[in-house]
């Protein structure tokens, strides 16, 4: 048994929780449950980030005190996580007393290392991101990477010697290749640091909502120094050394890709300065969009987390979010896809398997678990080996932080068990009076179902518990992976109780009418239209089955990520008269490099500033020694030149085209 410490970001409390906040916390929850089933002592931390200019201004806008606002909004996050039945061990608030104390001590240590000095800050600040930006990162009064408005700041400030840590950080990335995943994110951070680091302003004097700088209370600490330190507060930091040693360094910090720089540059530099160990891993996940469009308050398209939790069974929501996209990728939230995955995967595959097996056991063998027999038949050997392989593959998927793969393997195993039943035909064995073989096949199917329940528990905990209750197994210990070390651990003679419908089939959602609220798929009024739409989905599925039509599934299309990117720079590639080397902002922290075969149609200077469609999730290709990280879409004109798919400023940079 070992200790396992995992964290989510702590969320800003200037607004209501949305799908993104639910997503990160659900990822962490799945890992926490998995590690507990492995027998680890898990500490799972989440919470709220409550200081800073952004929060102070949001409170001013509402005409209430910051304290009142953070109390109200933090409570909303806490409620959400309760409603989602997440299993965090602490919900930390940066206004907690122990945290304020830890931050003061952290800063004192950074100072003792000679890393803090007083100077004057002059530069750009985006309150929405709580981030400083260089001139080169700004265009039209906005941060290029995020679109947040920037303001000019000129004031006395304490600085942290971030520049001193550029080399140690690069060394850390080099010697710990898995410290930042996915690897594309590590490269992104490394090239940012290679570009040189400037010292970081870590205090402000023009607002007051924050933790004061020790010994200089007229300065308020930069909110990221405060926020990041939460990760050590929660495990005892400087107060409870025994606990701190037991849990620090954190095993995984889960974050969204938006806050990579803070976690992979600032945080390790602060820790080095304070003489503390660095986290073992930072896992940066992608971004959910709504109908391909980045969610934002101003567009009013933010997917509310409470609404989601009400619209869907929690297991289904978790399954969808974790199955639909690999952790590092962006994804488009779609009700139609939730319904498809629920119906085809959860209901038809697992739900059906459980129902039919319990029904057969009730009808044919008296409703209790038969005795296991030696495995000799080749189909039994194959089934047991498939169970072992699924277990090992799921372990590996967790190791690789690839939860979608874990679910692929789970579903593949469930299909195997369904096939086993088709092949062995217990109903025929029953008819023929072959009791011995009948009992053997049903034992194997029931034991497989127990394996599925355990392996699915990090993802669909309610369904797993229902299945296990069907075997009379109702304690935490029954979830332990220890019982998956060998086959046939389902005790003979156990009375069986059919768990009932595990996953209700859902009707396809109705297309949204303008200005109408999203309705639950089961909504009475829309049932008629939903039926029609479901048929449409059914129909298209059927035609897609035939390869000869050349049609693809909607899911195949959604694999291609096409975004609006803005060309920032363009130049000729030496020795290649067709190629141009571009850099483009695709809505990420750092621009992408693109090598495009468009030099015959465009002069480099014509391209700068254009917003064009580009494929952003192709595997990078090397052309003339330059790594191309995206592909620009173009069509041939009648005179053999190329025309680009262009967008004007109404479309935000980074918007996904769907
Ligand atoms: O950044 N898709 O807080 P925050 C997926 N307080 N995940 C998303 C998302 C989306 N569209 N939008 C947000 C902060 N997230 C700081 C963190 S940590 C010491 C301080 C998730 O409320 C994702 O995890 O803006 C992202 O990193 C986090 O919410 C940002 O939450």
TrEMBL record:
In the UniProt record, the gene name given for this protein reads metG
Give GO terms for biological process.
methionyl-tRNA aminoacylation
Chain intervals for the UniProt region annotation (Disordered): 508-547
What's a Pfam family in this record? Answer: Anticodon_3
What quaternary arrangement does the UniProt entry report? Homodimer.
Q: Which family does it belong to?
A: Belongs to the class-I aminoacyl-tRNA synthetase family. MetG type 2B subfamily.
Q: What is this protein called?
A: Methionine--tRNA ligase
Q: Which InterPro entries match?
A: Anticodon_Met, Met-tRNA-synth_bsu_C, Met-tRNA_synth, Met-tRNA_synth_2, Methionyl/Leucyl_tRNA_Synth, MetRS_core, NA-bd_OB-fold, Rossmann-like_a/b/a_fold
Task: Provide the function of this protein.
Answer: Is required not only for elongation of protein synthesis but also for the initiation of all mRNA translation through initiator tRNA(fMet) aminoacylation.
Q: Where in the cell is it found?
A: Cytoplasm
Q: Give its E.C. classification number.
A: 6.1.1.10
Species of provenance: Lujinxingia vulgaris
Enzyme class, top EC level, equals ligase
Q: Which domain of life is it from?
A: Bacteria
Q: Where is the composition biased (Basic and acidic residues)?
A: 531-545
């Amino acid at each position: 048994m070992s200790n396992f410490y995992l964290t989510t970001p702590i969320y800003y409390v200037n607004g209501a929780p949305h799908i993104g906040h639910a997503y990160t916390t659900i990822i962490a929850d799945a890992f926490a449950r998995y590690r507990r089933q492995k027998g680890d002592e898990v500490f799972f931390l989440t919470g709220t980030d409550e200081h800073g200019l952004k929060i102070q201004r949001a409170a001013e806008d509402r005409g209430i005190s910051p304290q009142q606002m953070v109390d109200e909004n933090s409570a909303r996050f806490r409620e959400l996580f309760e409603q989602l039945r997440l299993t965090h061990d602490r919900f930390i608030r940066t206004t907690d007393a122990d945290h304020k104390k830890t931050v003061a001590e952290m800063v004192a240590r950074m100072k003792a290392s000679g890393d803090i000095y007083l100077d004057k800050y002059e530069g750009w600040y985006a309150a929405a991101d709580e981030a400083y930006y260089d001139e080169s990162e700004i265009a039209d009064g906005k941060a290029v990477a995020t679109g947040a408005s920037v303001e000019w700041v000129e004031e006395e400030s304490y600085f942290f010697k971030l520049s001193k840590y550029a080399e140690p950080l690069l060394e850390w990335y080099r010697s710990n290749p898995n410290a930042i995943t996915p690897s594309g994110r590590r490269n992104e951070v490394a090239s940012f640091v290679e570009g040189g680091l400037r010292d970081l302003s870590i205090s402000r004097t023009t607002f007051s909502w924050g933790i004061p700088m020790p010994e200089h209370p007229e300065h308020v600490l930069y909110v990221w120094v405060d926020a990041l330190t939460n990760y050590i507060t929660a495990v005892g930091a400087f107060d409870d050394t025994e606990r701190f040693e037991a849990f620090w360094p954190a095993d995984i910090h889960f974050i969204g890709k938006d806050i990579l720089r803070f976690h992979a540059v600032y945080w390790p530099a602060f820790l080095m300065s304070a003489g503390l160990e660095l986290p073992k891993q930072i896992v940066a996940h992608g971004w959910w969009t709504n109908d391909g469009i980045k969610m934002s308050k101003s567009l009013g398209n933010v997917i509310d987390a409470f609404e989601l939790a009400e619209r869907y069974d929690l297991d289904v929501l978790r399954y969808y979010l974790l199955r639909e996209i690999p952790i590092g990728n962006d994804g488009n939230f779609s009700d139609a896809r939730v319904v498809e995955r629920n119906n085809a995967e959860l209901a038809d595959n697992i739900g059906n398997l459980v129902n039919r097996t319990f029904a057969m056991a009730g009808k044919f063998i008296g409703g209790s678990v038969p005795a296991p027999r030696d495995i000799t038949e080749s189909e039994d050997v194959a089934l047991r080996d498939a169970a072992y392989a699924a277990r090992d593959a799921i372990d590996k998927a967790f190791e690789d932080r690839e939860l979608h793969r874990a679910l692929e393997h789970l579903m593949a195993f469930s299909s195997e068990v369904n096939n086993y039943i088709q092949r062995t035909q217990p109903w025929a064995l029953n008819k023929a009076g072959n009791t011995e073989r009948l009992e053997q096949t049903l034992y194997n199917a029931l034991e497989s179902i127990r394996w599925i329940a355990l392996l699915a528990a990090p993802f669909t905990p309610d369904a797993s518990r229902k299945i296990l209750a069907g075997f009379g197994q109702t304690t935490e210990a029954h979830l332990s992976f220890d019982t998956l070390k060998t086959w046939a651990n389902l005790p003979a003679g156990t009375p069986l109780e059919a768990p009932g419908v595990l996953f209700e089939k859902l009707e396809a959602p109705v297309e949204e009418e303008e200005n109408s609220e999203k309705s639950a798929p089961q909504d009475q009024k829309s049932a008629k239209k939903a039926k029609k739409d479901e048929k449409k989905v059914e129909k298209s599925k059927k035609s897609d089955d035939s390869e000869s039509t050349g049609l693809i599934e909607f899911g195949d299309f959604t694999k291609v990520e096409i975004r609006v990117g803005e060309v920032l720079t363009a130049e000729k590639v030496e020795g290649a008269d067709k190629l141009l080397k571009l850099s483009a902002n695709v809505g990420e922290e750092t621009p992408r490099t693109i090598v495009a075969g468009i030099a015959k149609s465009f002069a480099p200077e014509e391209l700068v500033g254009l917003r064009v469609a580009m494929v952003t999730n192709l595997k990078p290709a090397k052309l003339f020694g330059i790594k191309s990280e995206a592909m620009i879409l173009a069509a041939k004109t009648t005179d053999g030149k190329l025309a680009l798919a262009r967008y004007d400023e109404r479309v935000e940079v980074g918007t996904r085209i769907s």
